[in-house]
Automatic annotation (TrEMBL):
The keyword Membrane does not apply. InterPro entries: Acyl_CoA_acyltransferase, GNAT_dom. PROSITE patterns: GNAT. PANTHER family: N-ACETYLTRANSFERASE, UPF0039 PROTEIN C11D3.02C. Keywords: Acyltransferase, Transferase. Residues 8-172 form the N-acetyltransferase domain. Pfam families: Acetyltransf_4 (PF13420). This is GNAT family N-acetyltransferase. The keyword Acyltransferase applies.
Length: 172
């Protein structure tokens, strides 16, 4: 019987990942309230997002791949928290996993790599908004030192209903 354990490599995202990353994200757009985007993207529409996450600086894209197949299992990003200059030392972080990669430690590896990459940057806080309910994401963020700071009630409407978003923060 094959093992569920997959050898995983985490590396910065590259332009060659664009199609696979778009497909992964579109799953969450179509099937879940985890993202509040409501229309799927083409890879070309997602290109500016990918290019806004260079290999250095405060805005990163880390990709987890299966070391054998090189298939993308998930990704984590740090992005601007808000556009005004005084927010420059804060980032919003997010993580998306292929559904079959959940519960296998991939998210932990991604966040470990992301926070190590950010450790030398001029950053003060990381924030994460988690559409509710999402216990797996809450547990992951709490393991990385995030603490709940508040919940926006019924802040997004998708699939004909309203969703809450719980906000978490951690020091960097």
């Amino acid at each position: 019987m094959p093992s569920e354990r997959t050898e995983v490599q985490v590396r910065p995202g590259i332009e060659g990942d664009l199609e696979a990353l778009t497909d992964l994200y579109n799953h969450y757009v179509r099937e879940t309230p985890i993202t509040f985007d409501t229309a799927i993207f083409t890879p070309e529409e997602r290109r500016p997002w990918l290019l806004s996450h260079p290999e250095d600086g405060p805005y990163r894209l880390m990709v987890a791949t299966d070391t054998d197949s090189q298939e993308i299992l998930g990704y984590a990003t740090s992005s601007p928290f808000r556009p005004k200059p005084a927010y420059a030392t804060s980032v919003e972080v997010t993580i998306y996993l292929r559904p079959d990669a959940a519960g296998r430690g991939v998210g932990t590896l991604l966040y470990k790599s992301l926070f190590e990459a950010l450790s030398g940057e001029d950053l003060h806080r990381a924030y994460a908004g988690i559409a509710q309910p999402n216990e797996a994401s809450v547990r992951l963020h709490e393991r990385f030192g995030f603490r709940h700071v508040g919940t926006y009630r019924e802040v997004g409407r998708k699939f004909g209903r309203y969703w809450d978003v719980a906000w978490y923060e951690r020091d960097l």
